Amino acid sequence: MSDAVSRFDEGLRSILTELEGGAFEVAKTEQELREINARFVGANGSLTSVLKLMRELPGDQRKPKGQAANEVKQKIEARFSARLDALLREAREADLKAPFDVTLPGRGVLPGRLHPITRVRHELLDIFESLGFEVVDGPEIDLHENCFDRLGFPPDHPATDMQDTFFVDRGKGAGDRGTLLRTHTSTMQIREMSRRPPPLAVVSAGAVYRRDDDATHSPMFHQIEGFLVDEKVTMADLKGVLQRFLERLYGEAIEVRLRPSYFPFVEPGAEVDARRPGGSWMEIGGCGMIHPVVFEHVGYDPTKVSGFAFGMGIDRMAMVKFGVPNIKLLFENDVRFLGGF
Ligand code: DAH
C-alpha cells in the first residue's frame, strides 16, 4: 500500500474517531462550534489536509477514497448542524425560562390632559355650582335675536357690525345676518329665561367669537356668564356673589370694585375690578342689574322680578394663573407648549 494511501486512510480514521468521541457535542456556544468545525473543514483543517493527498493517490484508488472522504465530510456536516440546532434550542429555552425583568424601563405612554382653559373653566363652574348656581351649556352658533336684539341692542349697534361678528351663511343670500357665531355668552340669558319661569340662578361657560385678531385678541376666546332672577334681588347680592366667587378662586380675601359702565342689557351696568389687599386692580368682566327690556323679551314681569347678570373672560384668568404671556399660545395646539401645564 502506498504511503499516501495509508496516510489518507489514517487521516479519515482519526477524524471519525474524533467525531465519535463527541468533538462537536462539547461545544457550549455557537462560536465554539464554528471553531471546532473549522478544525475539520477550515483551510488548515484535518479533512482539508487529507483531501490534499488525493493528488498523490494511485489512479484506481481515487474514486473509492474520494467516496470515503465524502462520507466523512457528510458526517461532519451532520454532526455540526445537529449540535447547532441543539444549541439554538437551548438558548431559546433558557431565554424563556429566564426571570422577566420587571425593572426594565417600559415604553413611555403620553397621557392626554385637559387644556388649561378647560381646567380653569371647570374650576370656575365648580365654584358657582357650590354657590347654588345651576350649570348649563349652550350653542356657539345662535340667532341674531338671542345674541343682540332680545338683549336690548339697538339694530344699528356697532357690535353687530361685520367688523365684529362672524355671520353664518345659510344660503339665503348676501345680507342675511340671522345666524352667527355668538359674540358673548350673554345669549344664555335669553335662552334660559325664555325656557322657564323665575326664580333661577344659572351659570354657563364656553367659546365666543369676534372678528378681532391681534397680539392681545384671538378671534375665538372664552367667557363665563352668570345670572340670577328672583324677587327683590339687589346690586348688593351681585357684589356679594362676585366677592365670594373670587375669594374661593384665589383662596384669600379679595376686594371687589364695581365701576359704572354701559351694556345694553343691564341697568345699572358696571365693570368688575378685583384686587388682593394692597395689590393693583384687575378688570375681570362686566355686570349689572338685568334691564327691564330683557325681562319683557323673555316674558318675565319686570315689576315683579329683578335680577343681576355678569360676564367674565376665562382666557385672561388662565393666562394669569399659568403665567402665559400671549393668548395665541393657548390656541395653537402645540403640545410642546400645552404639555407644560
Ligand atoms: N357680554 C358682555 C361682553 O361680552 C359682558 C357682560 C357685561 C356680561 C355685563 C354681562 C353683563 O352679563 O351684565 O362684553
Observed structural traits:
341 residues, alpha+beta, BirA Bifunctional Protein, domain 2, 2 domains, two-stranded antiparallel ribbon, 11 helices, 9 strands, binds 3,4-dihydroxyphenylalanine
Give an overview in words:
The strands form 2 sheets. A 7-stranded mixed sheet has the order 1-4-5-9-8-7-6, with helices on both faces. A two-stranded antiparallel sheet has the order 2-3. Helix 1 runs antiparallel to helix 3, helix 2 (30-41) runs antiparallel to helix 4 and helix 5 (116-130) packs across helix 10. The protein is of the alpha+beta class. The protein has 2 domains: 3-97, no CATH class; 116-338, BirA Bifunctional Protein, domain 2 (2-Layer Sandwich), CATH 3.30.930.10. It is rod-shaped and about 135 Å long. The chain has helices at residues 3-20, 30-41, 46-52, 59-97, 116-130, 144-147, 187-195, 235-250, 292-297, 314-322, 335-338; strands at residues 134-135, 141-143, 179-181, 200-209, 220-230, 255-261, 266-275, 282-290, 306-313. 3,4-dihydroxyphenylalanine (DAH) binds next to strand 7, strand 8 and strand 9. 3,4-dihydroxyphenylalanine binds next to strand 7, strand 8 and strand 9.
